[in-house]
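DUF3078 domain-containing protein, pasting as requested.
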Amino acid sequence: MSLGTLFTLVLTVSAQDAGDEDQLVDGWNNQGNFQFLFNQSAFNKDWTGGGTSSIAGNLNANIEFNYTKDRVTWENDIILEYGLTKQDTDPFTRKTNDRIEINSVYGYEVNKDDDTAYYSFFINAMTQATKGYTFKKDSLGNTIRTERTNFFSPGYLQAGPGYLYKKGSFLSINLAPSTARIIMVDDKFTSGTDYVDRSYFGVASGEERRYELGASLNAFYKLTLLENITMDNKLLLYSNYLDQPGNVDINYLAHIKMKVNDWVSAKFIFQAIYDDNAVGAFQIREVSGLGLSYTL
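Structure tokens follow.
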């Protein structure tokens, strides 16, 4: 006798002001998207195909507060993501996602008769909520873990003036040629013996901060692929003038939303990150799910 079970649940709740989402309306235009994904798989001892029982959950929230009035545009969003997974053969629960990000871009029209070009100032902050670990096997084959990251270790804060090109709510490009960036860490990560001979996310041994000055680009484009299928594209680039400006940090996110009906939707997310200070190679993640949705 063999038995295998797989259960996946995705719950999405959306709230937004009435009106066409691609048409800017004077005043505040707020919206929120909340998603919960649960995945469970189980195999009994006689399951010949092999497999490991596991349980996983992911929470995601994206809240936007946008303001448009006369010659002013002000866009703000908060992104929260957290996920955990546990396998029967692993003594530790592991994170699958952990992200806290806050963005704010203020723009003032260059010309009152042109609502696409703005002088701008932006702020971006990123970190994670809980400890992150690296895992390896000891000489006896047991899994051991070592703390690698924590809340604001690392933490990123960058800000600067620039130029914003904006077309409705589906296209925006913000170029800031004078962007200040601070990388913050707990000095316990830079003072230990494991980090004496190298930097920790770019922060030197014994230090708590790294200061950078460079150029940044933040672009967003929303594309309608088919009826009820849209694709959000976000691209963030940063070059540090003070240290190897040719090593550009890249963060690209593609989010495809497929509306089946008023209650059911499907999503696919692809993200690629290159940060020379963190890994020096591309980090890739993919998320997909079919779920229930409710819109206010």
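Note for the archive: Residues 45 and 239 are 53 Å apart (CA to CA).
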